[in-house]
């Protein structure tokens, strides 16, 4: 991302074709109007609750702005950049839900909601700006061979000149990792189009959780010796998958993004099952367990209880994740 920022600053210094940006803005409004009216639409739709309800329609609409992006890909970028936090600010001065640095925003920010103000802190502006910026980059490198989306992502990170020079994703470790991470996360935000393949590590995760049955709950527990081998809910699921070589984030709402999301009637043993008081927002998830089949999970429910079997079908059931190595490895350590 730092390589990309240097390219953006250079374009601002050189003028960056402001007239072209204005033409882009006009075109963006036309396309957005068509999308909102149902004239166009991408093949990938967002999985349930992966994007907070306040941004769901924005991401679904603007994620179809051009062929190089889709709603799941745009959601993956926003999650990777800020965890959907509209107030996020990085030490490098990147701002808002899409983490634009000031120079980038000056050249590429648009008034997405038409209120006459381009506000980097307003998701109604920042999310459309992120989509239009992606599409502008894709247009710069459209003649480069290879996957147009991966070339766009590489341009976002390293600049389009590098993509043109190397005729594809350049051999920079940071850029190659950025492309891989976003493409992996994309699958975690996309609504599955077919049945999701079972995880190879699921049986091992269940076996680990079964060995912990009867262990007392501990808030913040990771199962370490100094904690008496006790767990809280996400500590248990993290340890269960760590036992088979998959590292999950520490908290439940981040674990939800560790793979695709099977429907309730598609649950398989080893799936992580999640619970929330807000059925529209995965960031509000407050509990997780390991599904074992027959409508039951193994979970660490609450203080004063022990790790046990509990039913899945409760009013606060949110959804499920079939953990994949690629999905877990793509998750940021902090969002």
Structural description of this entry:
The chain has 335 residues and is of the alpha+beta class. Helices cover 43% and strands 7% of the residues. It contains 13 helices and five strands. It has a five-stranded antiparallel β-sheet with strand order 4-3-2-1-5. The protein is elongated and about 60 Å long.
Outline:
With 335 residues, the chain is α+β, with helices and mostly antiparallel strands. It has helices spanning 2-13, 18-36, 53-62, 71-82, 102-108, 123-140, 148-158, 160-166, 173-189, 202-211, 233-242, 252-255, 325-330; strands spanning 272-275, 287-293, 296-299, 308-311, 317-321.
Shape: elongated
Estimate percent helicity: 40-55%
**What is the number of strand segments?**
5
Topology as a string of helices (H) and strands (E):
HHHHHHHHHHHHEEEEEH
What does the average pLDDT come to?
A: 87
The radius of gyration computed from the alpha-carbon positions, rounded to a whole number of angstroms, is 21 Å
N- to C-terminal separation? 16 Å
- The strand order across the widest sheet is 4-3-2-1-5
Name the poorly predicted regions.
Answer: 1-42
Q: What class do helices, strands and sheet pairing give?
A: alpha+beta
Number of helices: 13
Beta-strand share of residues: 5-15%
**Could you describe the largest sheet, including whether it forms a barrel?**
5 strands, antiparallel
């Amino acid at each position: 991302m730092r390589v990309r920022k240097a390219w953006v600053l250079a374009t601002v210094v050189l003028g960056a074709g402001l007239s072209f940006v204005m033409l882009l803005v006009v075109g963006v409004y036309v396309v957005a109007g068509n999308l909102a009216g149902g004239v166009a639409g991408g093949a990938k739709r967002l999985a349930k609750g992966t994007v907070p309800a306040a941004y769901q329609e924005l991401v679904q609409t603007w994620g179809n702005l051009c062929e190089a992006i889709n709603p799941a890909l745009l959601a993956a970028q926003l999650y990777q950049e800020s965890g959907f936090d509209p107030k996020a600010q990085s030490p490098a001065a990147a701002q808002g839900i899409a983490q634009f640095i000031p120079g980038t925003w000056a050249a590429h920010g648009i008034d997405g909601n038409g209120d006459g103000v381009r506000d980097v802190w307003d998701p109604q502006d920042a999310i459309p700006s992120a989509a239009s910026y992606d599409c502008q980059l894709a247009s710069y490198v459209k003649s480069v061979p290879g996957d147009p989306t991966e070339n766009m992502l590489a341009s976002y990170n390293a600049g389009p000149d590098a993509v043109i020079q190397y005729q594809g994703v350049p051999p920079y470790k940071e850029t190659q990792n950025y492309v891989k991470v976003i493409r992996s996360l994309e699958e975690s935000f996309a609504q599955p189009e077919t049945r999701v393949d079972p995880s190879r590590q699921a049986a091992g995760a269940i076996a680990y959780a079964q060995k912990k049955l009867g262990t007392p709950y501990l808030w913040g527990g990771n199962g370490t010796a100094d904690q008496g081998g006790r767990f809280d809910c996400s500590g248990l699921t993290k340890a269960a998958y760590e036992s088979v070589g998959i590292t999950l984030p520490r908290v439940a709402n981040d674990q939800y993004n560790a793979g695709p999301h099977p429907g309730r009637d598609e649950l398989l043993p080893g799936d992580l099952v999640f619970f929330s008081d807000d059925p529209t927002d995965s960031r509000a998830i407050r509990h997780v367990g390991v599904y074992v089949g027959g409508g039951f999970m193994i979970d660490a429910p609450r203080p004063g209880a022990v790790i046990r079997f509990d039913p899945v079908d409760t009013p606060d059931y949110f959804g499920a994740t079939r953990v994949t190595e690629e999905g877990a490895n793509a998750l940021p350590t902090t969002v």
